[in-house]
């Protein structure tokens, strides 16, 4: 039977525990987590997100100023090219503020 000391020894012996995850893996995990959250219930509305102190990316901001009041809270990143780049490249050319995928690299 394994105990905590065995796992600590195993962690010391491997360098994999010290290596950070690849940015593209982080992006894919973020997408999967948000989609899982979306499947369990509605996401927070963009106006609520902004009121709670989180900045909106360029595309989310455009949705908030567009004259479409009937939009349901959805995962807008699913149609954004930044998500596609971040999930496939470890150094994607994403530079705009408040994009969650820009923070992974």
Structural class: mainly alpha
Oligomeric state of this protein: single chain
Main sheet record: none
Beta-strand proportion:
under 5%
Counted by DSSP, the helix tally is 5
**Average pLDDT reading:** 83
Query: How many extended strands?
Result: 0
Order of helices and strands: HHHHH
How far from one another are the termini?
Answer: 39 Å
Shape: elongated
**Low-pLDDT runs:** none
Helix-strand layout with pairing:
Layout: H1 4-13, H2 23-40, H3 46-51, H4 58-65, H5 81-88
Helix pairs in contact: 2-5
Keyphrases for this structure?
single chain; 0% strand; 105 residues
Describe the protein in words.
The chain is mainly α. It contains five helices and no strands. Helix 2 packs across helix 5. The longest helix is centred in the first third of the chain and has 18 residues. It is elongated and about 60 Å long. The N and C termini lie far apart (39 Å). The mean pLDDT is 83.
